[in-house]
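ZP: hey, is the (2Z)-2-iminopentanedioic acid complex queued? I don't see it on the tracker
AM: it wasn't, my bad. submitting now with these inputs:
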Amino acid sequence: MGYVDEVIARVIEKNPGQPEFHQAVKEVLETIRPVVDRHEEQYRKLAILERLTEPDRQIRFRVPWVDDKGQVQVNVGYRVQFNSAIGPYKGGLRFHPSVNIGIIKFLGFEQIFKNSLTSLPIGGGKGGSDFDPKGKSDREVMAFCQSFMTELFRHIGPDTDVPAGDIGVGGREIGFLYGQYKRIRDAYESVLTGKGLTYGGSLARTEATGYGLLYYTEELLKLNNIDIAGKTCLVSGAGNVAIYAIQKAHQLGAKVVTCSDSTGWVYDPDGIDVEALREIKEVQRARLTEYKKYRPNSEYHDGRGVWSVKADIALPCATQNELDLDDAKALVANGVIAVCEGANMPSTLEATAYLKEHGVIFGPAKAANAGGVATSALEMSQNAERLSWTFEEVDARLKQIMVNIVHNSDEAAKEYGMEGDYVAGANIAGFLKVVDAMIAQGVV
Ligand code: NDP
Ligand code: 2IT
């Protein structure tokens, strides 16, 4: 057995019951094989792959809080500090009932390479809780966030670990978390990103992941001599990433005809109305069933089904493994040109393989959605110099970062004989920088 296969087997054995973590490790290690083969003796001796797949630290804690009926509720909180070779741990917090240690580990592992690809000095981490903000009052969300931070604060800091948002954690939650951190530490520090604009947030951070996804997609298509203008797109999800992906797609002259949430999905042949979507999701925090009230010409369907619609480009922006082999077959049968991932690991390994085999241009999550964390790092830079940049300046830097990721991934794939494989290219480019730093820093 080669080194890569040995380490994959070891990860599966040592981390039972964590299929998402196994999946993320397999995807990375299997595509960096040519690099590992070239350096096998050195990497084996230094146990590079074993160290890379074992987090620096995993923190798990109790989060007790009182609901509106006076009942005490107990959730589990996590922070996985995965790798700090190139900078302080950086990565979001996810609040969703499906959260468990395996999910946080897959996200933290992905984050190492994604953060490296941004070219900014940030290491990889992720955290969250099985708390479900859906249907909770603002007071309940605040009570939960304060209790969560009352434990988390001792593990984070502006030069140690800087969390941000992810599923279920947006501006409201970041505000409550930041307030509690500041109260406990008595320090106004850049310890979270995605902050509000009145207390240290960056312009364009809200839009950054969705906008970045479209800058990446536009450039990747350009590299393949295709113009994004005039193309029809499918988006899944209706949260932070989906909303601003749809907005930027429309600005670039494409038309997005779908979006979805965990209850159902919408088909709007005239193009999704972003302002209606923002009102439903950001203001009312309601379900997509409301969309038809704003757009009588649209269709609402219960369950899942976005990938059955005929379109040129698919942009999954909801959650992991939301695009499976059957979905990939439907997309290919309908003539899809490109799939670029806004969510983290939204395509199963089988779906990714099928799409690549059938000539679909495939932009993997850790490259395509890196705009969010990149702009978080720009928020840290602005906080460090105690200045705020204009929207245009942040947006221009974001765009340049996404363009660079496309070309760096493309060149890395070419260098290792895998031209056009942007999954391998992103993994290789992200991996090389981290490994170089790990080797330079010795056995730690
Ligand atoms: P939000 O909470 O704002 O939105 C998530 C959306 O996905 C909602 O529409 C939600 O529907 C849907 N969704 C979530 N879980 C499920 C599920 N299990 N089944 C079906 N639908 C689901 O999160 P974000 O938009 O921030 O995140 C979306 C994806 O993008 C995630 O994979 C996240 O990790 C990734 N990402 C986010 C970044 C960011 O900056 N926010 C950066 C990079 C990646 P419902 O409301 O009904 O639950
Ligand atoms: O998956 C991700 O990159 C995020 N949720 C954003 C992380 C961040 O620190 O901004």
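AM: back. The mean pLDDT is 98.
ZP: great, adding it to the tracker
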